[in-house]
Design a protein that fits this description.
The structure is a homodimer of 408-residue chains. The first copy, chain A, is of the alpha/beta class and 408 residues long. Chain A is built from twelve helices and 14 strands. In chain A, the strands form three sheets. In chain A, strands 2-3-6-1-7-8-9-13-12-11 form a ten-stranded mixed β-sheet. In chain A, strands 4-5 form a two-stranded antiparallel ribbon. In chain A, strands 10-14 form a two-stranded antiparallel sheet. In chain A, strand 2 and strand 3 form a beta hairpin.
C-alpha cells in the first residue's frame, strides 16, 4: 500500500520537476505529513523522483475520478449532472478568483486540469506548442497535488485563467470526499492514472464535434466556417497524439456519433451515443439492457410507445475495446417526452439507482442541460449513479476493514 | 347465434352438394337434432343451400382448430405436440380401419381433410386434377361434418386411403372437446373457415421444402433428384392457386425459411422460423420477447450462454401481414442443449404456460420429434399452449354465461 515506485515524466518539458508557482502554504500543507520529507529530500537532489500510490492509509483517502475530453465537449454539463446525483449543486469557490475553473459541492470538488498548464498562452505561442501538447502541462505538479488530495492533504492549486490566458495565483483546494479531475490529460501520465479510482473518456466523433463547433462558434460567436475548419484541423495532430489514446485506459467511454436513423445526417442534432463499460473494474458493474451478456437491439417505439420521427433505437452487447472486454449500451435518437424515458429506464438494469425512476428524475431535474433528451444526458446520468455507487462501495469496504489491516 | 347465411361453394365440382358415401348412421346422428330438419328440407330442393354458423347453443360446442399445410410439412408432428400439451397421447381409432388418418386423444380428435377427397387417385388421374385442386375435394360434406361435430353430433366420415388411393368406407367420429381439422384446405371454403375457433398455417418456404423432400424421397425412398424436382414443379401451380392463399386467413402462421446465420446456406438443416401471430383474435394473446409492442433482435449466445456455431438469433416485432396487424417472434439457428432452451423460454412472455419451464419440459418430452432443437418445435409447442389457453378461455366464458343468455 505504501510502496513507492520511481516514475519518469513522459513527454514533458518539465523533466526536472520544476513546479510552477508553488506557494508557501502549498508546501506548508505538504509538510504536515512526515513521509513527504522523503519526497522533498529527493527533490533537492534535482532528480525527477515522484512517489506515487497511496501515502495515507486507504481508510481516509479521497475517491478520485478522471474525466478526459477535448474542450467544448460537454465536460461541465457532465460535472453538473454528477454533482447533482450526490444531492448538491456545484459552485465556484466562494470569495476566490472569479475566473477559477473549480467547482465545489458538498461531496465533490471538480478541478480543471488546464490549471496545470506549465506554459501560458504566450508561452505556448513562443514555443509553438498547443495546450494539448504534454510539454505545455506540468504533470509532476498534477501528480503531486492529486496524490496529496487523495491522501486528504489540502493543496494550493494554480489557476489557468481562460480569459487572460495567464497563470493566476493559486487557490486553496481542500480534500473533498470525491475529487474529479477533468480536462485534456487525466489519464495521460501513468502516475496520475494510477491515482484514479475510476476514469471516463468523452469521445465526440469528428463529425459531431464539427457540427457542434459550427453551431457555437458560427451561430453564437460569428466565426467563419473556414476559420472553424482551420482551428479543428490545427488541433487534430496533437489531439490524436496525446488526447485520443487515453480512451484505452478509461473504465467508461461515452462515444458520441452521428445518428444512423437518418441516412447521411450531418446536422449533429440527432445523436447515436454509446456507453462503453469496461468489464472487471472493481466496484463497477456495467448497466445492461434486458439480458446481461447477450446481444440485443431494441426499438422501443412501436405499439405501446409512439415516438415522432426518427424515433429511437437501442443496442446492448459485449465487445472488445482496445483489447479489453467491454459491455456497450447504445442509444440512437432522442426522447420526445417523459413517458419514453421512464419506459427506457425500466428496461435497463444495473443502473445503481436508489429508487425506481431515479434516472428519469435526474434527467427531468436538469431538462434544460444540453443532451437531456438523448443518450449523452442518459449515459452521463447513469455514470453519475455508477460513481455514487462506486464511492459508497469503497466507503463500505473501508468500514468493514480494520485500520490496522489496511496498513499491514 | 342461430342466424343462417347462404353460401355458394367456391371452385368446387360439387356445386349440387352431392355428399360422398353418407352412411345411414351418419344421417341418423344428424336427425338427433331437430333443427337440422331445415337443412335436410333445403337439401331436398336440390339447391346448394348450406346452413352455417352454430346450430347448437355455444355452451356445448366443440372447439374447432384448423391447421393448413402442404403434405410432408410436419403436420403430424405438430399434432402430436398439440395433443401432448393436453396431457394425452394421440392414437388411431381403436378397432377401425388400419389406414384411418384420424388421431384421437382424451380431449382432441384430429381429422385429416384428405378424407374429403371427392375424387380418388384414379378419378383425379382421369379428370387431370391434383389433390390440391378444390374440384377433387368435397367441401359441402366437409362443412356439414365439421359443423355437426362442432355442434356435438357424431358423424360418419369417409376415409381416403393413402395406401390404395381409394375412398374406404366411413368411420364414426364422435364429437371431441377439441376438433383439429388438418390438411390442404381447412381455410379454403368460407363456410368451413367460419367454423374455426383458431387457424394455423404451416408455411414452409420452397427452399426448405426442397431440401426436406430431397432428404426424405432421395435418401430414404431412393427417388432421383430429377423426379423430386419434377414432382415439386408439378404441384406448384395448384399450390399457389389454392393452398398458399389460405395463410391470409390464419390466426397464426409458422413460417420456415433457410437460416440467415450461414451465408448462402441451402442444406435446410439450420432453419429460420417465424411465428406470425394475428392481433385482435378473441382468446388469443400473442407471445412476445422482452418488451411487448416494440422491435427487438436478440442473440442470447454471449457471455452467459456459449453456443456452438452458428448460434441462434431471435427477433420480435410488430409487422403487417396481408393487411392484418401481427406480432412476429422469430428464431434463427438451433439449440445445443437444455440450458439454452430454458434460457430462451425465460425471456419470452405470454406463453400461456401453467408453470415455469413448461415449454422446455414439452420440448424435452418429445426430444426425438423433428424440430425439437429449433424454432419449428418451439413455436409448435407455443401454439399448442395457446390452443389449450384458448380452449380454457372459451370453456370459462361459457361457464360464466347462463344458457338462456347464449341462445337469446
Amino acid at each position: 500500500m505504501a510502496a513507492c515506485t520511481v516514475y519518469t515524466t513522459t513527454k514533458s518539458l518539465n523533466t526536472k520537476c520544476s513546479i510552477s508557482s508553488p506557494s508557501k502554504s502549498h508546501w506548508g500543507y505538504f509538510a504536515q505529513k512526515q513521509r513527504l520529507v522523503i519526497f522533498r529530500t529527493r527533490r533537492r537532489s534535482s532528480l525527477c523522483v515522484i512517489t506515487c500510490g497511496a501515502v495515507a492509509g486507504d481508510h481516509d483517502q479521497t475517491v478520485v475520478i478522471g474525466l478526459a475530453a477535448d474542450s467544448g465537449c460537454g465536460k461541465s454539463t457532465f460535472m453538473r449532472r454528477l454533482t447533482s446525483v450526490f444531492g448538491g449543486a456545484a459552485e465556484p469557490p466562494k470569495g476566490g478568483n472569479p475566473d477559477s475553473n473549480t467547482l465545489i459541492s458538498d461531496t465533490t470538488t471538480v478541478i480543471c486540469l488546464d490549471d496545470y498548464h506549465s506554459l501560458d498562452r504566450n508561452g505556448r505561442k513562443e514555443k509553438g506548442v498547443t495546450a494539448l501538447d504534454p510539454r505545455a502541462n506540468n504533470f509532476d505538479l498534477m501528480c503531486e497535488q492529486v496524490r496529496a488530495l487523495k491522501d486528504r492533504i489540502a493543496v494550493e492549486k494554480p489557476i489557468y485563467n481562460h480569459v487572460t490566458g495567464l497563470l493566476d495565483p493559486p487557490e486553496l483546494i481542500k480534500p473533498p470526499k470525491i475529487l474529479v479531475i477533468e480536462g485534456l490529460h487525466p489519464m495521460f501520465d501513468p502516475r496520475v492514472r494510477e491515482l484514479l479510482d475510476f476514469s471516463i473518456y468523452l469521445d465526440i466523433s469528428n463529425e459531431v464535434k464539427f457540427a457542434w463547433k459550427i453551431q457555437r462558434d458560427m451561430a453564437e460567436r460569428g466565426h467563419s466556417l473556414e476559420s472553424i475548419k482551420a482551428s479543428i484541423e490545427a488541433r487534430k495532430p496533437d489531439f490524436e497524439a496525446f488526447i485520443d489514446p487515453q480512451k484505452q485506459y478509461a473504465d467508461a467511454v461515452i462515444e458520441v456519433l452521428p445518428t444512423q436513423l437518418i441516412p447521411d445526417d450531418n446536422e449533429g442534432k440527432i445523436l447515436r451515443v454509446r456507453l462503453i463499460q469496461k468489464e472487471g473494474v472493481k466496484h463497477f458493474s456495467p448497466a445492461y439492457l434486458f439480458d446481461e451478456g447477450s446481444t440485443i437491439s431494441w426499438i422501443p417505439c412501436g405499439r405501446k410507445l409512439t415516438c415522432s420521427y426518427p424515433g429511437s433505437k437501442f443496442f446492448y452487447g459485449p465487445e472488445t475495446y482496445y483489447g479489453h472486454e467491454v459491455s456497450v449500451v447504445e442509444m440512437d435518437g432522442q426522447f420526445d417526452k417523459l413517458d419514453e424515458l421512464i419506459y427506457v429506464e425500466s428496461h435497463l438494469s444495473n443502473l445503481s439507482t436508489k429508487f425506481y425512476g431515479e434516472v428519469t428524475q435526474q434527467m427531468l431535474q436538469h431538462a434544460d442541460f444540453p443532451g437531456s433528451n438523448n443518450g449523452t444526458g442518459l449515459f452521463q446520468t447513469i455514470i453519475g449513479l455508477k460513481i455514487r455507487d462506486l464511492y459508497e462501495q469503497i466507503i463500505a469496504s473501508r468500514a468493514r476493514t480494520p485500520v490496522g489491516a489496511a496498513q499491514a
